Each structure stands twice: as structure tokens, then as C-alpha cells.
Amino acid sequence: MSWISFAVFGYFLQAVSVLGDKIILKKILPRPSSYAFWQGILSLGAVIFIPFGFSFLSAEKIFISFLAGAFWLYGLFFFFTALRKADASNVLPVVLSFTAILIFTMEGFFLRHQFSSADLIAGVLMVSGSIALSLEHRWGHGRKIRGFIVPAIAAAFLFAFSTFLMKYLFLNESFFNVFIWSRGGLFLAGLSFALSSDFRNEIIAGSKSLKRPRASASIVINKIFGALGALSIFFAISRGPAALVNALQGLQYAFLFLIGASLSLWLPSLIEESLSPKAIMQKIFGMFMVSLGIFILYFYGN
Question: Could you list the residue ranges that cross the membrane (predicted)?
Fold first, then answer.
């Protein structure tokens, strides 16, 4: 299987996980700090991959691995914060576009990756399609935009730096070893939220919801989907250009729309997806752009 196949599968699992995140943030853990804390704690589940390849790294690479994991979790915190201030359709285009530009710049400048013309065309098509898939026709009031734009950009920077550091480590170390060590960074970053009295109170308040078996089971199951998706995507990054793997994120939005549209017909109280003719045409256009980009990348890319 090519790295593209792993990226496609990973983004499908991530789409399922994001839908679960929306429901959890709405019904179980409404505070971003509380949810980020538990994401960090549950990341220790990566120890199950120790039999597949684990060894001690140099102190420098352990630090970089922890930094990559911490950046990712803090990125999730800012992403969840932005989602509380605006709709996902407003937040996702900002995060996607800034993350794609930053990864492309860092991979080309620091890692000297040579992108072919077909790679660049495919990347532009996939990023454009991703934005089309995630945009809505209205952005709300100016105050709403100013409220979410800062945490959204912060999330993009942190996601980009985390992805770049992971790619750097994958060049010289085994995939599972880097993945396991980076989860240590997520765990420590999750614990850091407990150092703040305000965040600690939010974590304690959110933990009361976890006493319900159904709520705690929902979070664990959703994190399993998210972890497997992240594993597949990071494996794709270890085998292919990080910028192009990130550009494939448009598939996640396509999966989100298809799954969300289906669920909104049966569970409108949990998932609400616009099914107007204009919205559907926009999503179809976005999926076509992403599909065309994948076709060019798969058959003509470097």
C-alpha cells in the first residue's frame, strides 16, 4: 500500500473521531482544557505498540519527540477553543490553509524536499478543495471572526510545527519508536493543564461527567478511532511528503460531510449539517477538486 492509501484511511478515521469530538464537547466535556487533559492522559495507550518496535533515543531526539507531542496537544486545545467561539466551517479553512503553507515552507526550506510540478498542482487542488468543503456562505459578525481567528492561527502553527518535527524524526528513526515517544509529550502536556487552578477546576468539573459509564466509554471509543487515524496519518507522513499528506486533509472534510449528513437525518439534536442545494453543490465541487488532486498525485506525482 502507498502512503496515499494510509492517509486516506487515516482521514476517514479522523472524520469519525471529529464527529465524536463535536458530540463530546457538546454533551460531556464542554471545556477545551478538560477535554485536552483527558486526550493527553489517554495517549499513554500508545504503549500497546511497544512490541512493534521500541528503543531508547538520544536525549536530543527524546526532547524533540516530546516537543512534537506537546505541540500537537496544545494545538488541539486552541482548536477546541476556536470551535467554542465559531462554527467548524469558519475555523477549519483558517487552520487548514495556514498549516498547509507552514508545512510546505518548512519541509522545502529545512528538509530540502524537492516538489515536482505535479506535486505542487495536486497540493493546490487538494488545499483548494479542502477549503471549499469546509467553508460556509456566511462568516457572522466581525466580533465573532476576531474571537476565533487568534486561537485558530495558534492551532495551525502548533499543528505545523508538530508535523514537521515528526517528519524530521521519521527520517532517521523507526516509525513506531517515534510515535510512542511523541505520545509521552502529549501525556506531559495534558498534565500541564492541571498546573493552572482555573483549568484544574474545569478538569475536576468535567470529570464528574465521566462517572457515567456511557460517557466514559464514549470518550475511550472515540479516542481509539482518533489514535488509529493519527497512527495511519503519521505513517503516511513517514513515507511521503508531510505537506502533501496534510493537503489530503480535504478527504476528512468530505467524509465529515457524508457521515454528518447521514447522521443529521436521524440524530438532528447531535449533528446538524446543511443540506441545501447550494451547500451540496459546494461540497461536490470540493470533493471533485480533492479527488482530482489525488489522481494527479498518485499517477504523476514525484
Answer: 6-25, 37-56, 62-83, 90-111, 147-169, 175-195, 216-238, 250-271, 283-301
